[in-house]
Amino acid sequence: MTPGKNFLLLGAAALAALMLGQALLRSPEQVIRRKIDRLMLTVSLKSDDGNLTKAAKINRFGDFFTHDVKVNLGDIRWTSSVFNSRAELRDAFKNTVMRLKFADVQASDITIEVAKNSLSARVQLLVEAAIDIEERPLRWNLQLNYEKTEEGWRIRRVRRESVFRQQI
């Protein structure tokens, strides 16, 4: 091997080791916060999102939850609000996404408490959603229970704590 190839090989190995080290050093809070950001991007829709984009979002959506996820969103007039599996939740998301033209979903006021054994976490957050089938934005306080699985951090339980309608 030439010295240039050796240098490139050594540089690539060092970069790979650095990236692996960073991934291993991320705290559970950082990983969960990043997953929440990705979930908000997945459930948000732009008005020009086509069926392929919607299908990709539907496929990604299930990856955020355990197979036996329990969800209770309280009273929602345009969809079911209680789900007992990832398949049920994904089907409801699919039906909703196909009806929507626009959804801007944001999370804020995020509080994450990781269990001492680092295998579970409780997250409280405010979710605000502007969607085309509602006159005013929705504001939901949610509690998410995360579990560390073989697949990584997944949401095991979702419970809505209260509902507010933002005055416009």
In summary, what is this structure?
The chain has 168 residues and is an alpha+beta fold.
What radius of gyration results from the CA coordinates?
Answer: 19 Å
Shape: globular
- Fraction of helical residues: 25-40%
What order do the helices and strands follow?
Answer: HHHEEHEEEE
Major beta sheet, strand line-up: 2-1-6-5-4-3
The CATH architecture name reads: Roll
Biggest beta sheet summary? 6 strands, mixed
Give the count of structural domains. 1
Give me the count of strands: 6
CATH class call: Alpha Beta
Our estimate of the beta-strand percent is 35-45%
In round numbers, the mean pLDDT is 85
Report on this model:
This protein is an alpha+beta fold and 168 residues long. The chain has a single domain, classed as Nuclear Transport Factor 2, Chain: A, CATH 3.10.450. 38% of the residues lie in helices and 36% in strands. The chain has four helices and six strands. The protein has a six-stranded mixed β-sheet. A hairpin with a 6-residue loop joins strand 4 and strand 5. Helix 3 runs antiparallel to helix 4. The longest helix has 23 residues. It is globular. The C terminus is likely disordered.
